[in-house]
Model the fold of this input.
Amino acid sequence: MDIAEIFLNRLSDDNEIWAEVSEKLGAEKIGCNDELTDVLMGISDKMQFRIYISDEDIPNELIDSIRAVFINAAECSSSISVEFFTDEFVNIIDENDRITSRSKPRTLVHRDGDLHPTVHVWMIKRKDMGIYVLLQKRSHEKAIYPDCYDVSAAGHVTQSGEFGKTAVREIKEELGLDIPRMKLEFIGFRKNHTKYDDICDNELSAVYLCREPIYEDQLVLQLSEVSEVCWAEIDEILSIMEDGTFPNCISADELKMIKKAVF
Done:
C-alpha cells in the first residue's frame, strides 16, 4: 500500500494549500473540492493518506472542506484509507543554517531528522565564586530523556515564530515566570543532534542567559514538562557528567558557553 503524507497548514493561503494537495497526489493543479473528488475517485490501487493539520486555533474553511472530501472518499472507495493528525508545525532550517518558509509537522521533523529551530534559556546566579544554573528535571511522561536533568527552560520555535519571543514563552509555560525579552542575554547558537529510540532530534538552538533573581518558591512548574528544579554549580555538573551517574541531556559545550559569557 502506498502512503501519502499531506500537510494542511492553517497559516497558508488557499493557493499554497491546493499546491500541497496537488503535489502529494501527483496530480495536475487542483483548485477546488470537485477536482479533488475526481482525483481521489480515480485511484484504483490501495492508498493510505496521512493528513497532518497544524494546531493553531485559527478557523480555516478550506482545510475543513478538504478534510470532508477525504473522509467521503474513504467511505466511498475501498482503495482509500485516511488518518488525520493535529500537530505543531515548525520551520525547516536549510544547509546554510537559515530558517526557511517550509514548515513540517514536529512529529515528522523528529522522525526524519530535519534541522529545526529551538531555544535554550539558562537561569544563572553567582555564588561563592561559582556559577550556578537552574536545572529542570524532565517529566517522566516526556518522549525524549524522561526523568533526566536539562536546561532551565527550552522549546521549539513554532512556524513563523521568533527566537526571543519563544524564549519568553517557554519560561512562562515551564516555570511560570514573566521575564521580559530585554532581560535575556543571547550568547550564541549551538547545533545539537540527538538520537533517542525512533526520534532523531536535530536542532539549531539559540542560547540565552537570564541573570534575574530566581527563587524556587516563585516557580509554577508545568508538570507535563517539568517534575522538579534545582540549582547546581557548572563545574560540579561537568565533573559528574563524566562518570555517567548523573541522568541528564545537558550539553557540556553549552555549559562552557555559559562560563565563557559570564567570565
